[in-house]
Every structure is written in C-alpha cells, then in structure tokens.
Design brief:
The complex is a heterodimer of chains A (268) and B (205). Chain A has 268 residues and is an alpha+beta fold. Chain A has one domain: Sulfite Oxidase, Chain A, domain 2, CATH 3.90.420.10. The radius of gyration of chain A is 17 Å and the shape is globular. In chain A, strand 11 and strand 12 form a beta hairpin. Chain A contains seven helices and twelve strands. In chain A, strands 3, 4, 7, 8, 9, 11 and 12 form a seven-stranded mixed beta sheet that branches. Chain A has a five-stranded mixed beta sheet with strand order 2-1-10-5-6. Chain B is mainly α. Chain B has one domain. Chain B is built from nine helices and no strands. In chain B, helix 2 runs antiparallel to helix 8. The chains are: A alpha+beta (268), B mainly alpha (205). Chains A and B meet through strand 11 of A and helix 2 and helix 4 of B. Chain B: It holds the Pfam family Ferric_reduct. Chain B: InterPro entries: Fe3_Rdtase_TM_dom, MsrQ-like. Chain B: GO terms for molecular function: electron transfer activity; FMN binding; heme binding; metal ion binding; oxidoreductase activity, acting on diphenols and related substances as donors. Chain B: This is Protein-methionine-sulfoxide reductase heme-binding subunit MsrQ. Chain B: Heterodimer of a catalytic subunit (MsrP) and a heme-binding subunit (MsrQ).
Chain lengths: 268, 205
C-alpha cells in the first residue's frame, strides 16, 4: 500500500543521488550560522516537536494545523529533486512529503489569494544564528510564491529526506521545495503560511534587492551580478564534485507555462 | 650567524606550512577538507595570501616599536603573500572553472570581484618581480615608491573579499579592522612627516 502510493518524479538516469551525509553536512541555514558546517554542528540545539503551522490571510478556513494532523490526513509521496543553490552548487536529494497545492487547497483560498507567503520559526534560544550580530539577514526568514507557482504539482512540502524525518539542519520538521528556483526560495522550518493579494516580501530580496528577486528562477542565461550561473558544482554520489552546465528551470521545463507571459530576463 | 640561519628556516617553514598542510590532505584524502574540497582550497589560499599581506604590513610598525624580529623577514613574508595569491589564482583557473576560457574571459570582463582580485595579484607580481636585492639596489629610491603599491594591493584584496561576502560580515569586519589599523598608523605618521622631517627618513615605511 505504501509503495503503491509512492510517486517518483523528475529523476533522470544521469542524475546520481547525493550521499545522505553530504546533504546533511553542507547546508545554508543562516538561523544556525553562516558557514556551511554550522547547521549540522548546531542542529541538536533545535527541538522541532511538537510543531504546528498557522494559516491566515485570504482563505475561508484559516487556522492552525499540527504536523500530526497534516501527515495523517493524506498519503506521503517520495520525490527525487535537483536542488540548485544560487551560489552555484547543487545536489540531488530524495524527499518525502506532500504536494504543496493539495495542502493549500484544504484551507480554501479565496479569489483574492494571489500569492502565498511563508515564514520560518524564530527561536533565538535554539538558533544561535538568530542571536548573531554578524548576520545581515532579519528574522523571521520569509519567502513567497505566486499562487499558480504554489499550486504547480512540482511545489512540495517535505517532512522526510532519505527516508527519515528531515534533519534539523535541512529544515525540520517541514520545509518547502521549489526545485525550479534557487534553493533559498525553498524555505525551511515553516511555522506560518499566509494567503495575500499583493506580492509578499522575501528575506534575501530585502537584504539585497539588486541581487535576489522575488522569482529567482534557475536560469543559466541570467548571471548573478557577481558570478556566472551558467555552470554549477554538482555534489553527486560518493562525494564526487563535478562541474556541469546549469539548465533553465533547473531542468524542470514543465513549469515554463507559468512564465509564458513574462520576459524572464526582466524578472530576477 | 647560526641562530640567524635557524630563524630564517623557522620563519620559512612556518610560512610554508599552511600550503603543505592543505596540499597534503587534498592529495591524501580530499574529503577530509570538506564536502567540496576545492572550495576549501580556494578560500584558504585566498585567506592566507591576505594574512601574509597583513603580516608584511605589520613589519614596519613593529620595528618602530623596537620589535625587529619580523622586519628582517619582510621580503620573505611579502613573497609568501604572492605565493599564496598565485596558488589562489591557479586553483581558481584550474580547479574551479576548469580551464573554461570563455568563462574566464567573461569573469575577467564582467565580474568586479574577479578583476579586482586579478588586479591585486598583478600588483603582487610586480612587487615580487622587483624584490631581489639586485633590483632593489638598481632602482634605489624608485623601489621605495614602487613598493608603496602594496597599499593598493591590500585595498584591492579587501574589496575582493568584501565583494563576495554574502550574509556573513564577521570575516570582512575582522580583516577590515586590521587593515584599517595598519593604514591609519602610517597615515598618522605621514602627516607630521610631510611638515617637519626629510623625505629620506620615509625610506622604509
């Protein structure tokens, strides 16, 4: 029954899966600190349980939902996604979770809901990076998607990674995955979801608007102001790091229809 | 004479140690350096180049405080800065962009932090090439003026580091403070110098 309900998607023969230990030890999660090793080093200081998500804004059924209720309400799926960081490294990771759209629909967003805003947890006693004076980011970490992006079947809420609960350093207990956008869009440790009529603010855009836009679609033809996005360092199986060309939409060309009316070179 | 030689070897070995350490681990077991070992080599070589540049700049102020030990090795320390900067550049070209020349040209033309870094390396190259004693003697006063370019290199490296910072500002602040102190001390001394003392005394700043 479990196997039957498991859906595997978006993995090609060339894309070997990153070692679990690498995906758990090379993280950007500034709540724990700004170096790649900080999140795994300090992950034990964060206890994510119990957990609930508050849903507000332009919807008919706002409210709080606990992680248990969310998980018991539907079958989990496994998906193997490429994750492309804006810093030009990438991994291929198997996730377990739920389609974002199906979760969002249960709160019955109204016609005014044009965007979805997400918010990460603030708990300075458990996230030492939130106490640091050397961070240029403000907390809580916030992100957002356009409604049609959020409803796209590829948008995913993960609760598991490599068949285990998502580790703290990877965004326990529940995180977003938007595999056709740069990794920072895939917000971790979500505590709040809000349906909005206007485009929500996002953390990296507020921190540096000339470098990080709301859309932040993986696009090899649009360089970051400071570095090229044409290639990426794939941290692949057995820890092998190879330099490979980056694909438009991170290879998920099925999302192209979302942007057919947009000139992607004009939207960061 | 003997003690002098031992000290020379001591300073030389200590200065070479970081490159031997990281080089050895990289060739024996690169995974021990981190998930992306090349990234670590790139960052470490750059940091050591900057550290040696700052140590070189520290020699004269220390000498003015009657601590003469380091200033005897100023040329060697400066050359080690060039050595680590060259390793940094080679790692970038060979291991990071994997000799992808179109990307190299694109980076040089359009990425400020790359061309500022390359410029700093070129300045260090000029300083290294004019560091043999014979050249120092031949250039005389012009050598002193030429080697003030080290300030230009230091500022370029600072900008190079600052321009690639993303989120974390602690490192940039630390290096920035050290460089500021080293430059401020010289500026402070230079102002009365302009008014009272002969230019000849500035020969070794």
């Amino acid at each position: 029954n479990k196997v039957k309900s498991t859906v595997y998607r978006s993995v090609t023969a060339d894309d070997g899966i990153t070692d679990a230990s690498d995906a758990r030890q090379y993280n950007n999660f500034y709540e724990f600190g700004t170096s790649k090793q900080d999140p795994s080093r300090y992950a034990h200081e964060f206890n994510p349980y119990p957990w609930e998500i508050e849903v507000t804004g332009e919807c008919l059924k706002p409210g709080k939902i606990s992680l248990e209720d969310l998980l018991s309400s539907r079958a989990l799926e496994e998906r193997i996604y490429r994750l492309r960081c804006v810093e030009a490294w990438s991994m291929v990771i198997p996730w377990t979770g739920l389609e974002l759209g199906s979760v969002l629909k249960s709160f019955q967003p109204t016609s005014k809901a044009k965007y979805v805003a997400f918010e990460s947890i603030v708990r300075p006693s458990e996230f030492r990076g939130q106490k640091s004076i050397f961070s240029s980011l403000n907390w809580p970490y916030i992100e957002g998607l356009r409604m049609d992006e959020a409803m796209h079947p590829l948008a995913f809420l993960a609760v598991g990674m490599y068949g285990e609960p998502v580790p703290a350093q990877n965004g326990a207990p529940i995180r977003l995955l938007v595999p056709w956008k740069y990794g920072f869009k895939s917000i971790k440790s979500i505590v709040r979801i809000r349906f909005t009529e206007t485009e929500p603010h996002t953390t990296w855009n507020l921190s540096n608007p000339s470098e990080y836009g709301f859309y932040s679609i993986v696009n090899p033809n649009q360089p970051h102001p400071r570095w090229s996005q044409a290639n990426e360092r794939r941290i692949g199986p057995n820890g092998d790091v190879t330099r490979i060309p980056t694909q438009l939409f991170n290879g998920y060309s099925e999302v192209a229809e979302l942007y057919r009316d947009m000139d992607l070179s004009k939207y960061m | 004479m003997r003690a002098k030689k031992i000290y020379w070897w001591l300073v030389f070995s200590l200065s070479a140690l970081p490159s031997l350490y990281f080089g050895l681990i990289y060739f024996l077991n690169p995974r021990q350096l981190g998930i992306d070992p090349v990234e670590v080599l790139l960052a470490e070589s750059g940091q050591w180049a900057f550290r040696f540049l700052l140590i070189t700049l520290l020699c004269s102020p220390l000498r003015r405080l009657k601590l003469r030990f380091l200033s005897r090795y100023r040329r060697m320390l400066g050359l080690f800065s060039f050595y680590y900067a060259s390793l940094h550049a080679v790692i970038y070209v060979v291991a990071w962009i994997e000799l992808d020349w179109p990307i190299f040209i694109q980076d040089l033309v359009s990425r400020p932090f790359i061309y500022v870094g390359m410029f700093a390396w070129l300045v260090l190259l000029v300083l290294a090439a004019t560091s043999p004693k014979a050249v120092v003697r031949a250039l005389k006063k012009r050598w002193v003026i030429l080697h003030r370019l080290i300030y230009v290199a230091a500022l370029a490296v600072m900008v190079h580091l600052w321009m690639q910072t993303r989120g974390a500002i602690g490192e940039v602040l630390l290096y920035g403070c050290v460089l500021f102190l080293l430059l401020a001390e010289r500026l402070y001394r230079a102002v009365p110098l302009l008014n009272h003392q002969s230019v000849g005394k500035s020969a070794n700043n």
